[in-house]
Design brief:
By secondary structure, the chain is α/β, with parallel strands linked by helices. It has an eight-stranded mixed beta sheet with strand order 1-2-4-3-5-6-7-8, sandwiched between helices. Helix 1 crosses helix 7 and helix 3 crosses helix 4. The longest helix has 19 residues.
């Protein structure tokens, strides 16, 4: 497995290439997410030693800005979400992906996208908005985000694509009333996916534990599913 760090239009991207010709997975991480990304890539290498794949982990300068699909009213004491996802998506589709595909020897056969928490929400948003990805893994995605249902119910997936969702069993038991709807919304999102005739394969996994348990293993499991069940 080859590992390299690329600076793409000012954004730090960590790239693992395991052979050539397999799917490329684009994963939005935090600016301090190097250790998590390394662990997840190691799990992929161990579990999929016989399959080619490329993992591109791109860092957010500002997590709540770069992965939020639209701005939310600022409330004192709460995190501020300023809705920079469209700008992040333009960078990803117009700059990052062409750079990876034209300059690195991965020979990707398909494109996938995935993420955890707010990055998981962004991944679904990018999947719907761009129709450039053959599969998406939204792991513990922030589907509690106000306005998501109204947005997603009017969207359709790329034809022949795969969708993987996962969530921790304790996540909907949070005392934060806004975030407590995450379980209900994840169930709804899965039902929406199952009704979508463009979706060829789908999965919803419930993990033990809360939002911050076993993140590297959960995200790796989602990526393994994409590699094995993405577009054929």
């Amino acid at each position: 497995m080859e590992y390299r760090i690329e600076k793409i239009d000012g954004v730090c991207c960590r790239v693992w290439m395991h052979g050539q010709g397999g799917p490329a997975i684009y994963w939005g991480i935090a600016h301090d997410g190097e250790e998590l990304a390394q662990r997840a890539a190691g799990i992929l290498s161990d579990k999929l030693s016989d399959k080619p794949w490329t993992l591109v982990a791109y860092e957010a300068e500002n997590w709540n800005r770069d992965y939020s699909p639209w701005a939310l009213p600022s409330v004192k004491g709460e995190a501020e979400f300023t809705g920079g996802a469209k700008e992040t998506l333009v960078w990803l589709t117009d700059i990052c992906i062409p750079y990876i595909e034209n300059n690195l020897p991965c020979g990707a056969s398909s494109r996938m996208i995935g993420g955890y928490s707010l990055s998981g929400l962004f991944s679904l948003f990018a999947f719907y908005e761009s129709h450039m990805f053959d599969g998406v893994a939204s792991c513990s995605g922030s589907l509690w985000y106000p306005g998501w249902k109204a947005y997603a119910e009017g969207q359709s997936a790329p034809k022949g694509s795969g969708v993987y969702l996962s969530i921790g069993r304790k996540e909907e038991k949070t005392h934060n009333r806004k975030m407590a709807v995450v379980g209900e919304m994840t169930r709804w999102q899965y039902e929406q996916v199952q009704r979508d005739l463009n979706v060829r394969a789908s999965e919803l996994i419930w993990h033990n534990g809360g939002h911050f348990a076993d993140i590297d293993q959960r995200i790796a499991q989602g990526f393994i599913w994409l590699i094995e069940h993405g577009r054929k």
